[in-house]
Amino acid sequence: MEQILPHLDSVFSIDCVLFGFDGKELKILLIERNEEPFKDWWALPGNIVGPDESLDQSASRILYELTGLRGIFMEQYYAFGDPNRHPQGRVITLAYYALIRLGGDKELRPVSNYAKRANWLPITDLPRLAFDHQKIYDKGLEKIKRRIKHQPIAFELLPEKFTLTQLQHVYELIIGKKLDKRNFRKKILGFGVLKELDEKQKGVSYRAATLYRFDKRKYAKLFGKEISF
Amino acid sequence: MEQILPHLDSVFSIDCVLFGFDGKELKILLIERNEEPFKDWWALPGNIVGPDESLDQSASRILYELTGLRGIFMEQYYAFGDPNRHPQGRVITLAYYALIRLGGDKELRPVSNYAKRANWLPITDLPRLAFDHQKIYDKGLEKIKRRIKHQPIAFELLPEKFTLTQLQHVYELIIGKKLDKRNFRKKILGFGVLKELDEKQKGVSYRAATLYRFDKRKYAKLFGKEISF
DNA sequence: ATATAGTGTGTAATTTTTACACTAAGTAAT
DNA sequence: ATTACTTAGTGTAAAAATTACACACTATAT
User: Fold this and answer.
1) Per its UniProt record, what Gene3D superfamilies does this chain match (chains A, B) (predicted)?
2) Of A4, A159, A176, B140, which is most buried with the most CB atoms under 10 A?
């Protein structure tokens, strides 16, 4: 409930964990800060929520400003509001994660002034992060680990047309363990949400794999049924 | 990321969906508003986050002020921040749910001045709610529906000692469908997190059921394994 | 022609899930 | 003490899902 509206000093921001997949590794986008506090540290990209923006809009804007990308899958997952999380005052931050297919590094725009640069860094080898951003990242990874078991979010990290091996690779990276090829295929095809294309992988120096596409319409029909890995 | 700290007009509140179980029904605690906007409407209890409170502390405080209870299981689950959700200005609110065993109505303290009264109302028959509280409630229910399938939260709604039938009842109410008694028992006992007591139910006019207790230590050992209903 | 590297496929054993109905135990009423 | 009533407590067989496991095929590169 909300009654009177006092003028309070709480600042309200959004921080994003942008997960990217380049076909090999899972990476996240970090910026190198150009300002105190934590000048020269790596941090999650984020910003203040504008007065007339919805939260989701604000998250999309932050992502757009950094990458030039629109229409990316993003989800809010937690609010961090410890009174001491920011050395200069109370800042409550909402965490979003996004899932992005990386193809070439053209997605990186010139970054805004508060950062020296932005970089995609593999999650297997992250630097120390500013503020409580390690905690925010950890919780984000945990979230997608759980999500991928029940929702078709893996596709967001892949090009529209992908091979089953690529898909399996994404699952293995996120869940963090190897899966059996035959069982994986049996299961994922069993859900009936993939459309097999008349097209093969190109540019590989071995037998080319069949390409598939995620079929949203078939997925919609599944509604209510549990997907589980 | 957070840079300078501008003085912004955003107000920051917490709203709580307090789920209570009295042995029969699932209820939530609603307050009847005494102030504009939405005077005389039912609303979720909530409040402004204090300047030195953590978010979890703030949620616990709100719950304590309303019910006199401490140590209740609460979890933050979503932030609602549509620019128009509050008619008098921008209010971003964090939603928490809590799970409470109701035993006698002694838990209800005199409520603060912004409310006429507070009442536990069965979720099967809720009034129209103020602001976007219907949406907040809906998302909260959805959340515990998913949660109860993978985490031992049902026990929070029951007395320390409970019968398997009572436990099944809670599952049925939250998940929203009937379960088979034998299969339920087989499965839940199979997890090995219940301790059978040497004690029977009292005060019933039929064969008394065995009482059980949730065993946190055994549960801790399960860590990593999936519980699934 | 041959080496190489990843694709694509089936089955049997095991485990988990589902569906299903009767007897036992305690209380209340007579 | 008999009876009626109400819920507790239990097992099994069939079906479905999961696991473990290995080899032949195909495209390319040399």
Assistant:
1) Nucleoside Triphosphate Pyrophosphohydrolase, Winged helix-like DNA-binding domain superfamily/Winged helix DNA-binding domain
2) B140
